[in-house]
Amino acid sequence: MSGTPTPFAFRKHIGWCLLLLGALWSAAAHALSPEDAWALAEGDTATRIEALHRLALSDSQRAHDLIRALAREAVQVQGQQVLIADNGRWIDATTGAAVDGAGAVAVMLNNRLRNALEQSLAVLDLFDPDPMRQQAAAQRLRESQLTRPDPVLAAQIERALSPPYGQRLAAPARLVLEQAQAVVRLGSSDAPQRLAAAQVLAELGQPLVRNRLAEQLERESDPAVQQALRTAVAAIDRSLALAEVVRQVFAGISLGSILLLVALGLAITYGLLGVINMAHGELIMIGAYATFVVHALFQQFLPGWFEWYLLAALPIAFMASALVGALMERGVIRWLYGRPLETLLATWGLSLILIQLVRSTFGAQNVAVVSPQWMSGGIEVMSGLTLPWNRIFIIAFAAAVVIGVALFIGRTRMGLFVRGVTQNRSMAACMGVNTARIDTLAFAFGSGIAGLAGVAVSQVGNVAPDLGQQYIIDSFMVVVLGGVGQLAGTVYAALGVGVVNKFIEGWAGAVLAKIAVLVLIILIIQKRPQGLFALKGRSA
Amino acid sequence: NPNAPIRIGVLHSLSGTMAISETALKDTVLMAVEEINGRGGVLGRRLEAVVVDPASNWPLFAELARRLLTQDRVAAVFGCWTSVSRKAVLPVFEELNGLLYYPVQYEGEEMSPNVFYTGAAPNQQAIPAVEYLMSPDGGAARRFVLLGTDYVYPRTTNRILRAFLRTRGVGSADIMEEYTPFGHSDYQTIIARIRQFAGQGVKTTVISTINGDSNVPFYRELGNQGVRATDVPVMAFSVGEEELRGVDTRPLVGHLAAWNYFMSLQNPANAEFIRKWTAFARARNIAGHRERPLTNDPMEATYIGINMWRQAVEQARSIEVDRVRVAMRGQTFQAPSGFQVRMDDRNHHLHKPVFVGEVRADGQFNVVWRTRATVRAQPWSPFIEGNDRRPETPQRTR
Amino acid sequence: MTDMPPPSAYSPLHPPSKPLFGRAGWAALLSAALLVCVVVPVLNLWVPSDHALHLSDFMVGLLGKILTYAICALAIGMIWGQAGILSLGHGLFFALGGYVMGMHLMRQIGADGVYGSALPDFMVFLGWTELPWYWALSDSFLATLLLVVLVPGALAFVFGYLAFRSRITGVYFSIITQALTLAAMLLFFRNETGFGGNNGFTDFRRILGFPLATAEMRVILFAISGIVLLAFVLLARWLLLSKFGRVLHAIRDAESRVMFCGYNPLPYKLSIWVISAAMCGVAGALYVPQVGIINPSEMSPANSIEMAIWAAVGGRASLIGPIVGAFVVNGAKSVLTVSFPEFWLFFLGALFIVVTLFMPNGLAGLAQQAWSKLRRVRA
Amino acid sequence: MSPDLLELGAQRIQAAQARTQTEPGGSGGRAAGYAHPLQAGMVDVSHGRILYLEDVTVSFDGFRALNQLSLDIAPGELRCIIGPNGAGKTTLMDVITGKTRPDAGTVYFGSTIDLLRHSEPEIAAMGIGRKFQKPTVFENLTVFENLELALACHKGVWASMRFKLKAEQRDRLAQVLHTIELTQQCHALAGSLSHGQKQWLEIGMLLMQEPKLLLLDEPVAGMTDSETERTAELLSKLKQHHSLIVVEHDMGFVRAICSKVTVLCEGALLAEGTLDEVQADERVIEVYLGR
Amino acid sequence: MLIIEQLHQYYSGAHILRGVSLQARRGEITVVLGRNGVGKTTLLKSLMGLVPIRSGRIEFDGHSLVQATPYQRARAGIGYVPQGREIFSRLTVQENLLMGLATKSAKTPIPPVLFELFPVLAQMSGRRGGDLSGGQQQQLAIARALAAAPGLLVLDEPTEGIQPNIIKDIGRVLQHLAKNGLDGQPMAILLVEQYYDFAAALASQFVVMQRGEVVAQGSGEEMEMANISKLVAI
Ligand SMILES: Nc1ncnc2c1ncn2[C@@H]1O[C@H](COP(=O)(O)OP(=O)(O)OP(=O)(O)O)[C@@H](O)[C@H]1O
Ligand SMILES: Nc1ncnc2c1ncn2[C@@H]1O[C@H](COP(=O)(O)OP(=O)(O)OP(=O)(O)O)[C@@H](O)[C@H]1O
Ligand SMILES: CC(C)C[C@H](N)C(=O)O
Ligand SMILES: [Mg+2]
Ligand SMILES: [Mg+2]
């Protein structure tokens, strides 16, 4: 993924190392008293934290194991006995003996404890053989040093960097830890030390760092350090400003790509076929529910492959929506070509039926669609700017779908027939095109694209029976703004709306941004009554 | 006819945007009705639920309320979720002297003689929650993001919270208030801003009054952008077990919610409640719940409401509204929350316990804090100016 | 042009201009007036409530509400059916009329509100100490009556002028009307905007000093709604039988050709558009005191779409069709939401599909077909 | 305005002066200066031009449909325009009626009205009527209503609302119906007419409009020979009181109606003159008539 | 060979075609004449299956077409040039021609002779059909119908709006096509035409219609004798 492991990757590693440690543990085990274990497991938070610190600093491997187990919420108590649960088996935390913990209850964690645990773990992990874990631990320490300077931790950092321990640190972790140290040294009484710290920190363009530097600048007396601090703050400000712009553009594009995906199917069913398809949203919804079903099936029957359920969901969602679309076309819409406004009424009726159908089958409430791990987390493109993977995937997915659709419509014979049929149905028939089949196919294709959009939105939003209602207006807005029947127009309109929306939202808030975008759309249509990409010429 | 069934109205949206939340409440009423009938009914008469669908349409709420009261002549109505739907039916209930049991937490500032409020008032949810956040266990927060959907409940709650925070010495520079439209689904910008606001080195928490559909995208984006509960915890007032159903909760572990009931509470009353609901959901084949039965706070409040109504009717030996109203005062019930809740003698609100829970990986809540006893409701929040002069009992205004 | 054969050489043309109504039409109109002004009040107020013919208060309220919907449907039918302009934003005009009336009713509450202040409750609550300027005229009933027409009318004028001037047509127009109403809805949802936010206005008590929550008032409001609807039918009929109506039809079919005939379509479209918006405003104003609440969700795009659907179900080509549609759809909704709370959407959806597939001209078209068949059989 | 246009105006004014000096009348015997009273909305044809185009260029994505075309039509003239397919004839009509804006050039109706400043309905209201190449009538109105709509009268909204057909208007309608032989179908929907009938109806609408200048784009396409003859007769009668521009490919028809023919090719003037002259022109034979 | 027998057609009650019968043979040009509104276009539309007929027989090369959909008729080898051109206005000229090849396999190229016949189409091949001038569109419509080398070519007033020299070309082309087709096979041509001279010059057979009925019929040489131009003019 990236240079910076995400919190989740970090947790996964813990699991790995625990297995490793498990093999070594009988040899390395040191004593852990039942009282200490109990103090960590139960009681009020303050005492538990105290126990935690104590145990973390001890050399007891058992204690460390217990801390790690607690961090992954695997500690349970049975009577006064503290147990570590592992895949349906239990061991006694103090003795390491296997026991039967069938009646044990999990101990409670809260955020305060979790915070303390993370810090302790960071200190423990700093000397883990795995350099990735070292680095993650160092980062964690740096962060907590930035947010809440803690003398105990500061001492630990100093110690970790100094000789006997220092050699055991891998280079990247060491760098991070030095930055953490710099945070501490920024407050030192020695001016050269402060100067060096300021220079180290200038590299690290985070808002938190900026605050520390600015704070220090306020009380700094040494002019050289002052100067260094000032340039450091300015440098960070610059990089933050840049990051902000990049972030907004990215957010805009990512919103735009979702708009694009949801509008693309409509660009076909409405833009090309001229069906005012009010059930478009429901086709998206069906795609999302298809994803949910695939997801549930994987969870149940193929848990090992769960990570890849989305790949299976894509064709299935496409087919599901396409099938429903084909049925709609065959059963209802077929009779309405040439009466576009009537399709509004009929498809509205269809949408009501589809919503209720899904509601009766799956229930009115949201259903859970869990994103695969590889879509979580993000990539840090610059300091202070992490782009989430799922957004990146959706952008890429949208691009792929657009290209696919454009090729299909513009380059294939089938696409030609679709365009021909939609422009002049009876003449196309007279040319020997099986118009009924093309109609069904084209409608199913557009519906299938809506299904694909459903896969995408199931990864960012909620999946509920009225999911489609939320997208239908946006879809029409985008298609019409771009110019009906203009695929390129749809693309530009979607991205444009997304980016403009996000920029306005940046300074006016979400509500006003939405209103502003709507007003903007109205104004643009005034200037371009046939949409952004209106056909010019006689044929328009 | 003394042996004819007693009818009660169920006025919850089964379609439209609110169906997501309200459908389960309808089923809760039906479950309670079945249970009561199983025990011989009320006053020896069977209960019969008249279910209607106001379809998330507020005027339709008013119309159907009138219909329930005049055509179906129901003895009481259990219904409404959103405040606006309650406001829409209120004049009808007052005009026709009907009885409404409203089961959802709300913003207060109301006290009608024709409504019994079994959800929380702000002081039974929002204020304790913030107090918890400011405590060492809650992370000793000093900086707050008040994030909500742009409508009256969040705005009122936040107004109250602002006033409350001021009394705790939190300056307005440390409060960021932000609203999104209904159904807002793209939280990238807002969460980035929250991160910025939180990245100033002061312990910051988010108080979310986001409502409805927006919660899923909000929490998903939280997970995406790696906002962890240990850094910036989010405390929500309208996110419960049912709302979390649609989210992958693993990245959300540790985020918080405040309620008067959690499904994860361990006590006999709750075990019984969950058991009954599970059986009912399976028997009735309620989609979603038959696979994964969930209970939540408004369901509990609904259950309390209908049981208290039953007790009051039996005590009054009549279903007449005026007599039931009197009998409701001081009514108690052993609630699934594990506490004995009591209807206040005067203000038509319940005395309820308050819990703060942290999201668990399985979508349930870990109760990390609770009040020692039940808390009396303050529908007129003392943090709003002029409310000290408000009467303590509902006044008939028309 | 000179050299034409003399006109006397031909049989005189039948003048195609028809009277406003035929005899049957007038009779139907009068009996409808009688129904709303006499029959319903009598059945509701004077027939004892246990009598089989008694019309309950609930029914009067329901019918009154549907009458206001019917006005909207008529308004939509006029622009959609006659001028070919599909508005998906008429809910906005309806809501604006409603809001104007609502403001007046809010002021009528006086000091009886929860907070006992002269200001509406929500303002007290938001900490406002005086009425914002745009509430200035809300005290006066007369001004309210005027504004009910003027506010939606003026907005429609500005919007329509811009849109029609830029020759925005077809679905482009429909979509920007939808954008307009959506924007307005979001705006009204904001509490700062000053119209009560999400909750809107409710808790009305009296109108012109008379209490609202009485059977008599309900009947009166019902009768007014009915009369207004009939008056609008007359107005619409007059408009559409005139050459104005034919120009509209021509614009609907071939706008550019109309221009080459020397007509400027802009004022034509604009006037029917404004008239239709104002009609919706009046409907909204009648609606609010009857249902007792007005809030921004009336402006939601789905609501406006539904209005168009009433017109379509009834048959937008005729004037009566949309009215029939409003009654059928809303009547069906009222019955079904109670009888089949969990399945009514299936029925409603099926109704829409059946109507489109088998009754291209809506219910009214079906009736017409049946009627002409009957006549053919008799002849 | 460009300098040469100014110059042109000056020339015309001079010409007008010369004319008013020689021929009395025009301004009722008064000795007029170069200004003479103009009724609002009236076309000033005192300079011997009802339509005047200069250097009109229209291009579509680089393709020049009209290329610096100049044209002059006198009041009461019937001008035929012929030319190969795609020569720009229809485009020319589009320019005159305001449907297409030229990239460059001037278009004057009379000597005072700059057509480029006016919208389509304004141009139509001034008295330029047009029949399209593809017949366009109001398909959902009856034949009668189609003609009634085209009727010359005040065309404001309020006037339409109170419009009542006067007796003489009705007579005219009847006349026109007879002329176009649709009296039978008078109350039939225009949409149900055959192609040729629609052509006629459109001509009828044009007649009702009483325009000063008529533009007819292939009026006899799809008509039988006898109908073509009738149309020719009709146009010949019209030309005494109206100015006409007719585009046709039917040489027989052109011969029947026309004295002066303009040949367009590739957007520019190729030849001009009587039909015989033009038909003898090698270039015209080459690109258009064929051997 | 095309055989139409006793064709009756109604437009919602109005009896338009009243028992029309005619035949069109390969190698011949059959011209249908008649005044405006007599039902010529309706006849062709019935033949193409664009309007439903009440009764009658339509047979082409021995197969009955009465039940066939328009596209089946096209696949049976009928090419149609409709009145009013009916170009796919938003497809380019090239794509319009490709549409004409819909009955052929995907790899069939556009026959180059079409561009020889109508050079303007080659010039404008990238332009959208709707942007062409009226006459250009008409040429495109004819080329499009020819693209698939049909066995029967049906033309509804193909000369409308076309410049004289191209009309002459079209005449020559039709004669050539009747004899040799595009692919060497003789073709049956059914031509509806108002332009008498053109029709007379081409006709191997003629049919005159009046009020939905065939009132005269004969071979091309008989046209002058039968004084058909009078008949059409009434
Ligand atoms: N909007 C447009 N875009 C591109 N080319 C156009 C457009 N409009 C017209 N043209 C081209 O301009 C040229 C002139 O067209 P025009 O219709 O004026 O010809 P015409 O003289 O009327 O021909 P015809 O006799 O066939 O009707 C043609 O080549 C046509 O293809
Ligand atoms: N869609 C229709 N609905 C009703 N009547 C129609 C329809 N189309 C044509 N007609 C009528 O049918 C008759 C025959 O029309 P058709 O188009 O076949 O004539 P045509 O011989 O092709 O005439 P033309 O030479 O003018 O093209 C006409 O009287 C016409 O009014
Ligand atoms: C917070 C919500 C769950 C309920 C609240 N009463 C509302 O107005 O919508
Ligand atoms: Mg032309
Ligand atoms: Mg024809």
From TrEMBL, chain A:
<keyword id="KW-1003">Cell membrane</keyword>
<dbReference type="GO" id="GO:0022857">
    <property type="term" value="F:transmembrane transporter activity"/>
</dbReference>
<keyword id="KW-0732">Signal</keyword>
<dbReference type="Pfam" id="PF02653">
    <property type="entry name" value="BPD_transp_2"/>
</dbReference>
<feature type="transmembrane region" description="Helical">
    <location>
        <begin position="249"/>
        <end position="276"/>
    </location>
</feature>
<feature type="transmembrane region" description="Helical">
    <location>
        <begin position="340"/>
        <end position="358"/>
    </location>
</feature>
<feature type="transmembrane region" description="Helical">
    <location>
        <begin position="476"/>
        <end position="500"/>
    </location>
</feature>
<keyword id="KW-0472">Membrane</keyword>
<keyword id="KW-1133">Transmembrane helix</keyword>
<dbReference type="GO" id="GO:0005886">
    <property type="term" value="C:plasma membrane"/>
</dbReference>
<keyword id="KW-0029">Amino-acid transport</keyword>
<keyword id="KW-0812">Transmembrane</keyword>
UniProtKB/TrEMBL annotation, chain C:
<protein>
    <submittedName>
        <fullName>ABC-type branched-chain amino acid transport system, permease component</fullName>
    </submittedName>
</protein>
<feature type="transmembrane region" description="Helical">
    <location>
        <begin position="343"/>
        <end position="367"/>
    </location>
</feature>
<feature type="transmembrane region" description="Helical">
    <location>
        <begin position="114"/>
        <end position="135"/>
    </location>
</feature>
<keyword id="KW-0812">Transmembrane</keyword>
<feature type="transmembrane region" description="Helical">
    <location>
        <begin position="58"/>
        <end position="79"/>
    </location>
</feature>
<dbReference type="Pfam" id="PF02653">
    <property type="entry name" value="BPD_transp_2"/>
</dbReference>
<dbReference type="InterPro" id="IPR001851">
    <property type="entry name" value="ABC_transp_permease"/>
</dbReference>
<feature type="transmembrane region" description="Helical">
    <location>
        <begin position="219"/>
        <end position="240"/>
    </location>
</feature>
<dbReference type="InterPro" id="IPR043428">
    <property type="entry name" value="LivM-like"/>
</dbReference>
<keyword id="KW-1133">Transmembrane helix</keyword>
<feature type="transmembrane region" description="Helical">
    <location>
        <begin position="308"/>
        <end position="331"/>
    </location>
</feature>
<keyword id="KW-0472">Membrane</keyword>
TrEMBL record, chain D:
<dbReference type="InterPro" id="IPR017781">
    <property type="entry name" value="ABC_transptr_urea_ATP-bd_UrtD"/>
</dbReference>
<keyword id="KW-0472">Membrane</keyword>
<protein>
    <submittedName>
        <fullName>Uncharacterized ABC-type transport system, ATPase component</fullName>
    </submittedName>
</protein>
<feature type="domain" description="ABC transporter">
    <location>
        <begin position="51"/>
        <end position="291"/>
    </location>
</feature>
<dbReference type="GO" id="GO:0005886">
    <property type="term" value="C:plasma membrane"/>
</dbReference>
<keyword id="KW-0067">ATP-binding</keyword>
<keyword id="KW-1003">Cell membrane</keyword>
<dbReference type="Pfam" id="PF12399">
    <property type="entry name" value="BCA_ABC_TP_C"/>
</dbReference>
<keyword id="KW-0547">Nucleotide-binding</keyword>
<dbReference type="InterPro" id="IPR003439">
    <property type="entry name" value="ABC_transporter-like_ATP-bd"/>
</dbReference>
<dbReference type="GO" id="GO:0005524">
    <property type="term" value="F:ATP binding"/>
</dbReference>
<dbReference type="InterPro" id="IPR003593">
    <property type="entry name" value="AAA+_ATPase"/>
</dbReference>
UniProtKB/TrEMBL annotation, chain E:
<keyword id="KW-0813">Transport</keyword>
<dbReference type="InterPro" id="IPR003439">
    <property type="entry name" value="ABC_transporter-like_ATP-bd"/>
</dbReference>
<comment type="similarity">
    <text>Belongs to the ABC transporter superfamily.</text>
</comment>
<keyword id="KW-0067">ATP-binding</keyword>
<feature type="domain" description="ABC transporter">
    <location>
        <begin position="2"/>
        <end position="234"/>
    </location>
</feature>
<protein>
    <submittedName>
        <fullName>ABC-type branched-chain amino acid transport system, ATPase component</fullName>
    </submittedName>
</protein>
<dbReference type="Pfam" id="PF00005">
    <property type="entry name" value="ABC_tran"/>
</dbReference>
<dbReference type="InterPro" id="IPR052156">
    <property type="entry name" value="BCAA_Transport_ATP-bd_LivF"/>
</dbReference>
<keyword id="KW-0029">Amino-acid transport</keyword>
<keyword id="KW-0472">Membrane</keyword>
<dbReference type="InterPro" id="IPR003593">
    <property type="entry name" value="AAA+_ATPase"/>
</dbReference>
<dbReference type="InterPro" id="IPR027417">
    <property type="entry name" value="P-loop_NTPase"/>
</dbReference>
